[in-house]
Structure formats: C-alpha cells, structure tokens
User: Fold this.
Amino acid sequence: MDIVRYILFAQVFVAFFVAGGVFFKTKNLRSLTLSLLIALVGFHIVLFLFGSGKLVNVYPQFRSWFYYEIAFLFGPLVFVHLQCLIVNKKKIRILDVLHLIPIVVFWLGYGDVLLMEGNVRSAYIEANFLSRTMFWNYVLAFQTLLYAVGSSIYLFFNQSKLSANRLQYALFLVVAYVCSSILISYLTYYANSWRDFAWYYVALTFLIFGVGYFLVKNPLFLVQIKKKYFGSNLSNNDMKRIRSKIEKAFINDKVFLKGNFNISELSAMLNEKPHHVSQTFSELISENFNDYVNKHRIEIAKQYLHDSKYKNYKIEAIALESGFNNKVTFYKAFTKFTGQKPSAFRKSKK
Assistant:
C-alpha cells in the first residue's frame, strides 16, 4: 500500500501540471472545465493521502474538509465539459447552478459536524461514522452513478454531432468516469477501510493520463483544446492568405473527394505548416476541419441525389462518390447538415 501512496503522491504533481497546461493555454469554458476537473482530481488525492495517513492526527482541524464538496463536483464538470464539446457551450447559465444542489444539501445535513473544533470533530466522526458519515458516502456514490448514467445517455444521443477525434475523446472521458463511478460505489459498500479507496484514486489517474494521451495523439484536437499555436506569430493577414488557398483547394480542386483526406495532406498541398492551417480553421474559419470537409462533401452529394445521371446509384454509391468511406458516416453528416436523410432528400425533387 505504501508504494500505491507514493504513486498517488507523484500523480498529484502530474495532475496539477496537466491542469495548469490546459488552463494557461486557452480561455474558454471547455478548457476551464477540463482544467478544473483534473486539478480537483489532484486535490482530492491530496485530501485522501492526508485523511488516510498520520497527518490527520497532527492536524485534525482539516479532517473531512472539502472532501465531499470536491467529489460532488466531478460529475457536473464532466457533464458540462461534454456540453462544451457537443453544443459548444460557452458560458455558465443560471440552470447550471442546479448542479450544486448536492453540496448545499450536504452542508445542511452535515455542516454542524464540519463546523466542530478539530479534535471534537475527529472524535465525533469516529463515534458516529455509521450513523452520520456513512450516509453521505452512499449519497456521493449515488450522485456519481447518476451523472455517469446521465453523461452516457447524453453522449449516446448526441454522438453524431461530434467529429471522429472529439467522439473518441468524449467516449474515453465518459468510460473513464463510468468505471470510476462503479468502482467508488463498490468500495463504498464493500471496502474494509478508507485505505482501500487508494485503488479508486489509481483509477482516477488513468483519466489524467488518458486526457494527456488524446491531446498528444490528435494534433488538431490538441489545437482546439490547448491551442498548440499559443504564442504563434501568425498574423490575421497570414490566416486570410491560408483561408484563400483552402477555399481554392476545396472549390476548384475538390480535394475533399479523396477518402481519408486529413489536415496533414491539406497542409502539404498548400505548402503550409499543419498547426498554421489548424489555427486558420479554428480562429478565422471558425469550423473544425472534419465539419468543413463533410460540409463540402454533402453539397456534392446533394447535387448527385438530384441529378438524373445518378438516379440509379444507391445511397452508398453516392456516399463513396462524395468522398465518404461508408454509408453510416455519410448518413450522420447528411442529417447534420441538411436535417434530412439522403433518401428523403432524393424524393423531395420528385
């Protein structure tokens, strides 16, 4: 167990480092929620190491402080971060305050204990753990599972709105949170001591490493979340020049008709650096690369579907002619940009 504690202690620094990197690179709600989530995971690990070690006897006045409040925030942060990814949520609204209800209820029901003097609080918690404290562990486990289910359902019904990279990232985030939720619920009921929860925090560290992995693996997503080009000297005129080259490549050369077309290929064609092209999409065009490509493909597909020359083509053939690799991706993109299924659009001319 001592080895696990050393590992967790090291992960605290990793968590704060990753959280700081995300926070100082961008200033939007998406990055803020991700940074805050990772930072709070690190701080929660600190609270666990403190509460399950000898220091709690030296500084009893800090026992139980912020432990539940922070844990109650994990679910809301995951959910709001998903909203930022899926619907481009840019600011906190009044209804979002409802996420704080569990914390308010917790303070109403347990605040008297938290406001006790340190030694008195420690003695009280030891003597009344099953009758007072354990109840809130059950509430926390239930709230965690509730957000896990809610986040899963929300992502399932909105997955078509995400690009491939974002969907992959969102899936990892939700799966990691669901697994952590199941684990903490299991430990709440079956753990022999608080030290057993070390494995829960080990599982949470996968969230930190996983986020870092996806940010490094997907350069375009890294740009969108952390703005890899932070501090870039690319001027607005440079971006306008690149945008002009992009429009020419798409309108005149129809480069988007090539299957598996990616931003690296486009950058090579334009003789521009990939992160400069990414910055142009993000800041000037205000659209991610995948959506930009699919939007042009759908316009071509709409022409084919109403062209008598292609009346005998099946929908899948139209998809391939438009640059899509499969019918499923085509259907999702077509519905996203037109609000109709391809078959319904084809019939609308008749």
Observations:
- The two ends are 71 Å apart (CA to CA).
